[in-house]
Every structure is written in structure tokens, then in C-alpha cells.
Amino acid sequence: MLGAACAELAEKGYPGLSVENVAERAGVHKTTVYRRWATVDALVADALDSSRDTEWSAPDTGSVEGDLIAVADEVATTFADPVRRAVPEAVVAAALHSDRARQAKRDFYAARHAQAAVVVTRAVQRGELPADTDAVELVRLACAPLYYRVFITGEPVDRAAAERSARAALAAARAGLLRA
User: Which tens digit of pLDDT belongs to each residue from 6-22?
Assistant: First the structure.
């Protein structure tokens, strides 16, 4: 059912998500869905929780610059694709209306940032960054301008924006501004 919820989110977005449609897509009666999830927000939150544990490998290009650009470019690529962007947009919309969805979103991004922080840990080990660099904060800073464009200004994101964002964050880290 969580897969059906994600598919519905991708197809119809948060405003079009309904328990009835999820049940139909999953091939179950709607009462089956309601027994487990009393609200659409709870369903979205559990779908996000389940996706938090999916396999995701941090890039390893051999340099911190390449790795951070790859992380940021993945964000840009996701939001440049109308189909792929529907689920994260729906999650953000749900989080605006539901404490449970907001916590699930926070947990998802905390886990993803921790996974991505390995690129910074490797860079510190290679001597590319100061030893006291806050790895999670560097990952956040590399991606934050992209999310700002998508969710605040509605501007498009692309590879150039991802590169600029990653390089700016890297410059701050190299200057010692992201100390843990």
C-alpha cells in the first residue's frame, strides 16, 4: 500500500491523494487502508518513513568537489523531472499540514544527510578539508539553494545551479566556516 501511495503522489500530487485511490491502486478495499492509516497525512508519513531505509549510495568521484556536485546534481535532476519531483513536493505539502508528516520529512532528510556526509568524511581523510568540518552542515549547504529555488522562488534547477551551490558550500568549508 505504501508503494501505491507513492505512485498516487507521483501521479496526482498531495492535493489529489486520497485513501480511496490508494486502495484502488493497491487492489484492496478502502477500509483496509483506513484501519492502518486514519488520515492521508499518516499514509504519506509512513510512505516517507519506508523510503528512508531504501538503498542510496553516496557518490565517490575521487574528490570532494566532484562528490558534492554529484549530490547537488541528484537533487537538481530530481526536481527537474516532473514525475520524480511530485513525491518530494507532496511530502513537503503534507508536512505543512501534519506534525506526523513533518517529523517523517525531518527524519528522512536527517538520514539522507548523514548518508551523504560520508563524502565529507572521505575528503577530510584525504586532506581536502579541515578536520573539524561539520560534514552534515556541508551537505545541507550544498543542497539548500536548490531547495530554495524549488520551494520558495519557483525557479528551475539544473546542473549549473547544482555546481554553483556545491562549489559555494565547498568554498565556505575550505575557509573554515563550517566547523563542527
Answer: 888 778 877 788 889 99
